[in-house]
Amino acid sequence: MTSSRPKILIFGARGRLGAALVRASVADGEVHPLGRAEGNLADPAACADRVRAEQPAIVINSAALTNVDLCETERDLARTVNADAAGALARACTEVGARLIQISTDYVFSGQGKEPYAEDDSPEPISWYGQTKLEGEQQVMAAESRHAVVRVAWVFGPDRDSFVDKAVQSSLRGEPVKAVADKWSSPSYTLDIADALRALFAPAAPGGIYHLCNRGVCTWRDWAEEGIRAAAALGAPVQTRTVEPLRLAELGAMVAPRPVYSPLSSARIEALTGRPMRPWPEAVAAYVRLLAEAGRLRVD
Ligand SMILES: NC(=O)c1ccc[n+]([C@@H]2O[C@H](COP(=O)([O-])OP(=O)(O)OC[C@H]3O[C@@H](n4cnc5c(N)ncnc54)[C@H](OP(=O)(O)O)[C@@H]3O)[C@@H](O)[C@H]2O)c1
After folding, report:
1. pLDDT at residue 4 tops 90
2. Is the C-beta atom of 70 inside 6 A of ligand 1?
3. Which among 66, 117, 228, 286 has the fewest CB atoms less than 10 Å away?
4. pTM for the full model?
5. Is 153 near ligand 1, meaning CB less than 6 Å away?
């Protein structure tokens, strides 16, 4: 390893965010992407051994059991993957002198706030997913204060479909589009997240908790409408232009409670990078341009 090309190990490398992190990080180091087959967080000791064997300078953990409802029923697995594996990685990183960057979530908050959450606001999860992600954060920060926890919120990007893709596709097919209009957070475009997160690769960057989202607050309905509006602006043959509002309470199929209001303020990372995160509508528009360039603004 040389200081100019640090070895960067990325767990969860084939996920929506992980794949973007892999692409962005090659500018800064020798990237080793690890999917589930190479780094299964259900076996924390094996993942820690991998860190000790590879002797990286930086480890990013973007892997998680992200199915919020499944976490309620698969409680032990969720705790192992989301909490204990993060802790094992952090302790192994400390042993080899690496910094761990642990990806976390707005779901560590209760959602009872009125302003976007700051990094030092008290977490109070209301779901088992949120609880296990918080325990992961705590294990990471207990290992060493140089490690970093990066909380993101509504993640979208080109590597795996998310809510905004589904809304645009439904609109192209002429189907009614419905979305929750009484739940608020901050969309987080994977390309923007991956780019800003690189600031934490600098050894001098302080550890601790960071929030990392696009600027602004919206509902799922706003998010869907913005995606459709951006597609229409590019001349895509969208048919449904109005997104019908749903109430969160109407989504009967959900097992886990969701925080109602969980936008995140990214002030700390913005101070570190010296750049504001771009507002979420601009990020959605950039993403929809990417879809157009890839020929994906047509019915699948
Ligand atoms: N999605 C969101 O809106 C959102 C919001 C807030 C925070 N986050 C956080 O952001 C991070 C990235 O999420 P994402 O949006 O990229 O979700 P994702 O696409 O579901 O990525 C998660 C990755 O973790 C992997 N994984 C699951 N269990 C694993 C295990 N036991 N061992 C190794 N890998 C395992 C998955 O592998 P498979 O592909 O094989 O399943 C997947 O590649 C997570 O830490 C999540 O908690 C996400």
Report:
1. no
2. no
3. 286
4. 0.97
5. yes
